[in-house]
Amino acid sequence: MFRPLELFIGLRYTRAKRRNHFISFISLVSMLGIAVGVIALITVISVMNGFEKQLTDRILGMVAHVTISGVGESVHDWQHAVKTAAANPHVLGAAPYVERQALLQGTRVSGAVIRGVLPGEEPKVSDIDRKMVKGKLGDLKPGEFGIILGNELAMELGVGVGNKVTVVTPDVSVTPIGAVPRFKRCTVVGIFSVGFQEYDEGMAVMQMDDAERLFQLDGPTGIRLRLDDMFHAWDIGSDLAQQLGQFYRVRDWREGHANFFSAVSMEKKVMFIILSLIVAVATFNLVSTLVMLVTDKQADIAILRTLGISPQSIMGVFMVQGVIVGTFGILMGVLGGVALAINLPALVKWIEHVFHVEFLSPDIYYISEVPSDMHWSDVGWIAGIAFVFCVIATLYPAWRASRTQPAAALRYE
Questions:
Q1: 53-56: long-range contacts at Cβ-Cβ below 8 A with a sequence spacing of 24 or more?
Q2: Which end of the chain has the lower number of beta carbons within 10 A, N or C?
Q3: Which residues of the chain have pLDDT under 50?
């Protein structure tokens, strides 16, 4: 005989044609409900992963993983500090920088953070060279006082490439007529667009030597590092600070953006829990299906009991049947969810083209396309959770079946 017996009988019940077609209909509805729930969960989590990846790339593409700065206004002997940092195996790039706030005046006036960089070194620690929409980072030449603006900042100032911008610093110079603010006329040589308002609207880039002269510094204000693993930024930065000496302090990327990334992560976890509950509701449709099946099979259960099959085996028969129905629903959901998550951006574009609608207008949203980033680990977790819910949903109907008394079930047969 086929072993185990519970699996054999459960498979026979699953394949058998039922006299009660309503039970077959409820089983199909349960299977489709599980599939739809799994599809929704995989798709939504993939979209949230896509948005998180887009935001992470845009923010951390401009933010150093670790910043090492001096105790005073500038870092002395920065060449030695960069060489020491670059020798660390976890450091992918190191570059000095100057960063100060200033007032910029074009057709209109706006405040901004001025970042002085070395064009040859900056691509090692940021993506600004890949975010240029006009000009290039190499157009910043020492002594020429060129400046690159964020696209939102350029529109706010009413200037473009080739126009002049007056940079007014918060420092003052003492003259015979009194204290006057320091300022310098700079030429706009490029415009970048990161896709994040903090940088596009509030940052300008200059050549580092020019920035030092403008702010009267005798060296860079710090060193920016890019690491192979940004989540170990603090430990790596602290080790480097100890190597460099006690006159350095370390900051990592989480100091300015920890709350933002924590909020994104928490939102994804909450959404995962909510959608998991929806999947749970769908899987618990199996309860009604199996309860009706147990009622329909009372005579069969009684006969099996009289043949000597134990209550535990009867319970296993109906658990097997419920798990099979749930597994088919999960497989349909995984296949449909993976296919939808992979093709979602193209599908959204097709819907926008056919129906002449625009879900994320680029005039309003920085991310104007629906991103999708499917992780197989998420798919595995979703399928596993759905399977556990299916097993739990079979327990009560299977227990009811195991409690069937043969004499009572066969009384009117």
A1: 53/371, 53/373, 54/195, 54/367, 54/371, 55/196, 55/260, 55/264, 55/367, 56/261
A2: N
A3: 1-2
The 10s digit of each residue's pLDDT in 360-383 is 776 666 667 788 899 999 999 999
Positive or negative torsion for Cα 117, 121, 124, 130: positive
Q: Is 199 helix (H, G, I), strand (E, B) or coil?
A: helix
For residue 6, what pLDDT is reported?
A: 62
Where are the domains positioned within the chain?
5-58+261-409, 65-252
What is the reported pLDDT for 132?
Answer: 93
> Angle at the Cα of 397 (from 396 to 400), degrees rounded to 5?
90
What residues form DSSP beta bridges with 91? 227
CA 236 – CA 92 distance, rounded (Å) = 12
Four-CA torsion 19, 20, 22, 28, nearest 10 degrees? -50
pLDDT on residue 341:
92
> What is the structure's pLDDT at 256?
66
Q: What secondary structure does DSSP assign to 7-35, as a single string?
A: HHHHHHHHHSPPS-HHHHHHHHHHHHHHH
Residue 365 is predicted with a pLDDT of 66
**Tokens describing residue 413:** 């047969």
The length of the chain is: 413
Residue partners of 95: CB distance under 8 A and separation at least 6: 82, 117, 118, 121, 122, 124, 125, 223, 224
Of 264, 220, 212, nearest in space to 80 by CA: 220
